[in-house]
Amino acid sequence: MIDVAPLRAAIDRVALLLDPPDETALRAALGELSATVMCEPARASFAVYSDSFGCRCDLFDLPDDEFEEAQRRLYAGADEAAVSIAAALDLPPAGPLDVVPHLGYGDAVRLRAGHWVVSVTVRADGDDVPVFVEVCVEYGAGLGERLLAWAPPPASRPAPVDWSAAGAEPPAEYRWLLEHYGLGTFGSLVTLTAPAPLRPASARGFLRLDSDATLPVATAGGTTTLAYVVASPTPSVRVHFPDGGDGDTDVGLLQFLVALLCGNATIPGLPSPTPGFTPAPADGEP
Fold this sequence. Notes:
Blueprint: H1 4-14, H2 23-30, E1 36-40, E2 43-50, H3 64-89, E3 109-113, E4 116-123, E5 132-139, H4 143-150, H5 172-181, E6 184-186, E7 190-192, E8 203-204, E9 209-210, E10 214-220, E11 224-229, E12 237-240, E13 246-248, H6 253-261, E14 277-279
Antiparallel strand pairs: 1-2, 2-5, 3-4, 4-5, 6-7, 6-14, 7-10, 8-9, 10-11, 11-12, 12-13
């Protein structure tokens, strides 16, 4: 079983890092804790593993009638460990707009530590490797509060949004953005737009594979479009550049905006934004 005392101490330290840190800052906060660190624009995370649950390949020596039961017990033990680790950390649940780390296996136990989301989940990367419990801490909690601080919303309540125009169910964070800010521009760079019809899948790349359909939700620099990838299980924004190229951020618009305004992310070819929000002129205004 993983010792949660050093992990809890590390969480207390990284929770003080309000903006996504670089690798040096994150490793300094972790101290002596052995962890896998990942830092990239709009995201910083570290993962700690507990691999004391055996190896699935050992089960293949069992008769067929015993294999499935032994495999079930193995995962059940790891599930129980994940819950116990989450309980030992004694953190509040993550909020509805907090980031869901892309853990890829099972249902993660999501908790909140300052501006970080803690996920505890059971993982297995194949039949010949150990089943293990992963404790992942990723920047992305309190994003709404961070954006409100970097870019205060307009004093007057935005006009109601016609959601029927969207070509797909809009993510909750996009609803939150329009309901709090309405139409307008963040940092003189990213302009939040009203729901629009889906941008259809298009052939691209050497093999001419179809890309996923996207829901345009913002523009940058007047010619670059930011759109949610409809098929993504969690909010994920694709940048459509004016030359026809695409770039995936792998994070939602809310997290991307916070990263842009705090200087942790940029859009290629465009200037860095400044904090603030400017509402769009009302109909009839210049």
